[in-house]
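ugh ok fine here u go
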Amino acid sequence: MGVVHAVGMLLASDLNALASGSGSIPDADATYDRVTRVTACNAADAAVQCVSIDAAAGGADADPPPPPFVFVSAAEARWDFAAPFDWLEEYLVAKRAVESRLTTLNEENKLRASWLRPSLVYTFEKPAALPAVFAFVLGNAVGIPFVDRPVTVDTLARAAVRALSDGETRGCLDYEAMERLANLP
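structure:
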């Protein structure tokens, strides 16, 4: 068993349809806290509970290893300063809250949790995002602080699967760690 939580929303408004790769429009009552923190923490708690129930029922392993859990966070969650926009700060507060909860579950050895911190995630199948991707790649290459290199959807997906399956990965994975994981044989 393993869980990948990749639920999220970039903008809590109709503009999300233009800004996100999904084209989705959030419900009127959608907040970053509800969409990100609540769903991720509920999923993490459910994974912990499933293993506990299985062990209590006399499952094959009375002392099972912690289940793997992967959360797709954001590179900007590492910022130690307030975001320049209120909506971005709310987005990051929700991401950081999940990372904090996963850190606790890791320390308690109840989960083997990892959080992936991509900046932009892109695919060549959606060329409208490529100008922003180029700007981030260039910004990262010239060393602009707090600008991470974007990752492809494929890299993100392969890194998530490897983080679930390798038995050792836990904690924060930046774009370099995701690329290393994704490129393992």
